[in-house]
Specification:
Number of domains: 4
Shape: elongated
Distance between the termini: 25 Å
Number of strands: 22
Strand order of the largest sheet: 8-7-6-9-10-11-12
Bound molecules: 1,4-dihydronicotinamide adenine dinucleotide, 2-oxo-3-(phosphonooxy)propanoic acid
CATH class of the largest domain: Alpha Beta
Structural class: alpha/beta
CATH topology of the largest domain: Rossmann fold
Number of helices: 17
Strand content: 15-25%
Helix content: 25-40%
């Protein structure tokens, strides 16, 4: 039974999938401190959070069953991604579910700064009928600058166009072509700050975006500019904004997010009549909360059940077409790595993977992760596809990936060579339509067997009678052979035998086999 801890008031409707799952037990909790989480996390396989709970290195360190942290939302700045990756914990988010909600809040904020709706409301309910103070501005024919043209920024741009605004955008990853399609003019941050009447930010908070708008940018702004932040506190320098308002540069600002949340009671935004504030409500609509919780629950179930999942934040994204093409090979890749990992007793220095045939046309890096995971799991604790590459790198293990255009015999072929200081071993496998996964080469020997169960790999000299001797010895020890394959390069030369055995071969039988003079090596593998 998987145990999932659901924090931060994530929508019950959205996580219904988890409640309905027979293999999942859900606990909902709120407002736990780090210490309280550290105390209970060892019981859980997954934790789901919004932005309030900080999933720290300490919490993950204590979560020895923890496989996945699910963020029911976009920003993962409350999750220690590096710590998660090191421990092989998958971090997933729900990048699409709250785009419209946040975009709509942004627009509400833009309009509120233009028309001072919250300030007017406050006075009116306070008994004042003030029609002079609240003379606003129109959006039509104004310039809006959007910093960060991702999901939310692009939706804001669409709506701004409908309001008759000229849209300037800045995003290092936005191409001119795409900007043109959206009717957005590209500019630098400073360009935009000097031209825009409204500026709204929609980037994550990173080292590059922290205080992206600070004193120098406020100095460039037109008198009367209005600023909106519904992304992350810290993208706009809060103190510099207060100064720009005092200097008469900025006419109004609307902030949904703060450098520190919740802001201190004496935060200068909280009693400034030109600044509108909301308590991080961007994603707080019924629809968005349901969407993000559904998305994250689906992915958490996939991860817990060891099924393929779409995108993890701490793994490179895999486009759907690539995932579809590679998914059938994941098990083969892991089995090849698993087999190879059992062949060596010393540290692996290099893994060379060669993809040929159909596999040359796709980005095979997700498949390489499975191979590396398979190898490393015999050398290290807690290896999975999330941390496999990280662990390989941290151990100076060289991963070489090659592609050759066509395999002579197979439509697809994955060949993996493992090198240690003194030896190397090669395996190749393929996916045969109608037969599934097959190992088709061991070192230089052609073979053909399914990578599963208990295997005996025997090296010997190609002489008559050896197969009989091996069969008799195993049979007399009650070890039943399910399949047998012999591979050799030349008659009378060195050869190998691969036997699939119904159950684990006892150690004394392995020793008897090794004592047969014709056999040069006997090893047991379990896949
Ligand atoms: N207030 C709230 O409740 C919510 C806030 N957010 C925040 O909004 C932000 C944007 O969300 P999405 O649009 O969904 O993300 P997204 O990933 O689709 O877009 C972010 C964009 O920022 C751009 N970017 C990254 N570094 C940049 C830089 N240095 N300069 C300019 N652009 C840069 C990226 O290229 C990307 O296009 C995130 O930080 C997210 O956490 C999201 C949802 C709700
Ligand atoms: O999705 C995001 O990045 C958000 O900021 C939303 O935060 P929340 O889930 O409402 O705490």
């Amino acid at each position: 039974m998987f145990k999932v801890l659901v924090m931060d008031g994530i929508s019950d409707m959205g996580i219904q999938l988890l409640y309905d799952a027979a293999d999942v037990e859900v606990d909902k909790k709120n407002g736990l401190s780090e210490d309280e989480l550290v105390a209970i996390i060892p019981d859980y396989d997954a934790i789901l959070v919004r932005s309030a709970t900080k999933v720290t290195e300490r919490i993950m360190g204590a979560g020895n069953r923890l496989k996945v942290v699910g963020r029911a939302g976009v920003g993962v700045d409350n999750i220690d991604l590096e710590a998660a990756t090191k421990r092989g914990i998958v971090v997933i988010n729900a990048p699409d579910g709250n785009t419209i909600a946040t975009c709509e809040l942004t627009f509400a904020m833009i309009m509120s700064t233009a028309r001072m709706i919250p300030q007017a409301y406050k006075k009116t309910v306070g008994g004042e009928w003030d029609r002079k103070t609240f003379v606003g501005v129109e959006l039509r024919n104004k310039v809006i600058g959007i910093l960060g043209m991702g999901r939310i920024g692009s939706e804001v741009a669409k709506r701004a166009k409908v309001f008759g605004m000229e849209v300037l955008g800045y995003d290092p990853f936005l191409t001119e072509e795409r900007a043109e399609q959206m009717g957005v003019k590209l500019g630098t941050v400073n360009d935009i700050c000097s031209k825009a009447d409204f500026i709204t930010v929609h980037t994550p908070l990173t080292n590059e975006t922290r205080h992206m708008i600070s004193r120098p940018q406020f100095e460039l702004m037109k008198k009367g500019a209005r600023i909106v932040n519904c992304a992350r506190g810290g993208i706009i320098d809060e103190m510099a904004l207060v100064e720009a308002i005092e200097a008469g540069i900025v006419a109004g600002a609307a902030f949904d997010v703060f450098e520190s949340e919740p802001p201190a009671a004496d935060h200068p935004f909280l009693n400034n009549p030109r600044i509108i504030v909301t308590p991080h409500l961007g994603a707080s609509t019924i629809e968005a909360q349901e969407n993000v919780a559904i998305d994250v629950s689906e992915e958490v179930l996939h991860i817990l059940r060891e099924e393929p999942f779409k995108n993890a934040v701490n793994m490179p994204p895999v486009p759907a077409n690539v995932l579809n093409a590679l998914q059938p090979y994941f098990n083969l890749g892991e089995k090849l790595g698993d087999f190879l990992g059992q062949t060596v007793d010393t540290a692996v220095s290099e893994i060379t993977v060669n993809y040929s045939g159909d596999l040359t046309d796709v980005d095979t890096s997700p498949l390489t992760r499975y191979i590396v995971k398979g190898v490393l799991q015999h050398q290290l604790e807690g290896v999975n596809v999330v941390n496999a590459m990280h662990l390989a790198k941290s151990r100076n293990l060289n991963i070489v990936v090659q592609k050759s255009s066509a395999s002579k015999t197979f439509t697809n072929l994955v060949s993996v060579t493992l090198k240690t200081k003194n030896e190397q071993f090669t395996l190749a496998g393929t996916l045969l339509s109608g037969y599934g996964e097959r190992i088709v080469q061991i070192d230089q020997y052609p073979v053909d067997f399914a990578p599963e169960g208990n295997l005996l790999l025997i090296s010997h000299n190609d002489k008559p009678g050896i197969i009989g001797k091996v069969g008799t010895l195993l049979g007399s020890n009650d070890v039943n052979i399910a399949t047998m394959q012999v591979g050799r390069k030349v008659i009378g030369g060195s050869a190998i035998m691969v036997l699939t055995i119904d159950k684990h071969t006892p150690q004394n039988v392995l020793e008897q086999l090794a004592a047969l003079p014709e056999l040069t090596n006997v090893r047991e593998f379990s896949l």
